[in-house]
Specification:
This protein is an alpha+beta fold and about 260 residues long. The chain is built from 7 helices and 12 strands. It has helices at about 1-20, 20-30, 95-100, 120-130, 170-175, 205-220, 230-235, and strands spanning about 35-50, 65-75, 80-90, 110, 130-135, 140-145, 165, 180-190, 195-200, 235-240, 245, 255. Involved in the transposition of the insertion sequence.
């Protein structure tokens, strides 16, 4: 049964690739000179009968104890699968994402969702000369250098005034639905020394409502309640990248520039 699930997932990806082949070919021509590969990594999880729990332990929810997770990374430019892996449903996306770094090369663009977020991975991609775009968790603290830090009388800068934390909710409210905003040289976490680019994208009203409906279903399934602030922040997506974007067409015109 488990192999049937895996084959189904791979078939779905293959069919989707065929449907989008024309768009991918156009994308290939546009970015062939920009990137060696555009690597997209994602995962999907299926519930299994409880009898499989000893081998494929689930991630919890819906009263099921067994589940299988399939990880798939493919190159958008060539359509080739780079990594395919199956394991227990409780498998951590971030851990698996780090194992894929072994094959990252100069000129690659790695696109991953928030479950794969790992600061050390970003450092390694920078060192390899690769680009990345990740979706960021909304509760992540983002800082910028303080343009007016405090100083002691002897001229030493007050360490606690070196960075200022950005108010993500305030920034979101300054955007119109559908609008994007880029923050240059931001720092993820107070003790992060390497700056990165942050792009905010406020969702439209329809997109926000759909997200809240999906979130309500997840809350009911897992028996959790989202905090009010987190719910408000869910009306936007936050991305981080070592790419400098230009113009209104985010992701269409950019310079792959590294802050290392």
């Amino acid at each position: 049964m488990y192999f049937g699930f895996e084959k189904t997932v791979l078939l779905n990806y293959s069919l989707q690739h065929e449907v989008e082949s024309a768009a991918v070919m156009a994308l290939s021509h546009r970015y062939a000179s920009q990137f060696q590969r555009i690597r997209i990594l994602d995962s999907t999880t299926f519930q299994l009968p409880d009898a499989f729990a000893s081998t494929y332990q689930g991630s919890g929810g819906s009263g099921h104890t067994a589940g299988v997770k399939i990880q798939l990374e493919y190159d958008l430019l060539s359509g080739q699968f780079l990594h395919v892996h199956s394991g227990p449903g409780k498998q951590n996306d971030r851990t698996y994402g780090s194992t894929c770094l072994q094959t990252v090369q100069t000129g690659d663009l790695c696109i991953r969702d928030l479950g794969y977020f790992d600061l050390e991975d970003f450092h390694q991609m920078d060192e390899k000369g690769a680009c990345y775009i990740y979706r960021l968790k909304l509760n992540t603290r983002i800082y910028q250098k303080n343009p007016n830090p405090g100083y002691f009388k002897d001229g030493r800068m007050k360490k606690q005034s070196e960075y200022v934390q950005l108010d993500m909710e305030d920034l979101m409210l300054q955007l119109q639905p559908g609008q994007k905003h880029e923050i240059h040289k931001a720092y993820i976490g107070l003790y992060q020394n390497s700056p990165t680019e942050v792009v905010l994208h406020r969702l439209t009203g329809e997109q926000t409502r759909k997200r809240w409906v999906n979130q309500a279903l997840k809350e009911k399934k897992k028996g959790i309640v989202m905090k009010e602030r987190s719910k408000r922040l869910s009306a936007m997506n936050v991305y981080i990248s070592n790419i400098i974007f230009f113009g209104k067409g985010y992701g269409l015109s950019f310079d792959c520039r590294f802050w290392s």
